[in-house]
Amino acid sequence: MSETARRFPSSSLLGAALAAGVICAWIALHVFAVWHLEAADAPLLAIACLIVLTWLSVGLFIVAHDAMHGAIVPGSPRMNRAFGTVALLLFAGFSWRKLIVKHMAHHRHAGTDDDPDFSHGGPVAWYIDFVRTYFGWREFWVLGSSVILYALILGPRWPYVAFWAVPSILASMQLFIFGTWLPHRPGHDAFPDRHNARSTRFGDPLSLLTCFHFGGYHHEHHLYPSVPWWRLPSTREKGGA
Question: What residue intervals traverse the membrane (predicted)?
Fold first, then answer.
């Protein structure tokens, strides 16, 4: 057992239940919004669906992220891969293999030119580089085919595919701002160590709402990458910097 596992023991059952809960909640709200919601008759409900779907889309990516670190079901690479693959497919048709390679490179070279998530540009240019890193021809064809299939199935309701596309785009911005740019931007204040990462320290409620604790406890995540999102607050209580 690793030192991290001894200091911050996790629960396979709870981790799997939370991951499944995020995925199932996204699917349920997605199905409601795309197939049953009448946005013109209930505009406030439509806006609420977009907001919650955006947050749940962030959650899908965080589920996949935890799976990359083996944190959902510790000791079971197959289960982690299954959760991660499903979450990334629902999020934006992303490739599990492509993302895990790039994310491990991010941890090895955080905040350097070898970090695929790092850019020397301003936030807009950095976000564009961020999208280009993860959105390639595979994702283009997967998403394009999915939108066409949705249009064929939905018929007159085809514009409701926006309840998939818009939350995914907004979630990518949210993940970038709170999970990449704020924690890793240089020149704002000194980084505490070689990880070139800082925690935003918003407080736990806002930390959860913005990026499932990966902004509020980003430095702690780099210190203890195998700790799942729901355990990150405990890392600071037990000595995380």
Answer: 12-35, 42-62, 82-100, 140-158, 164-182
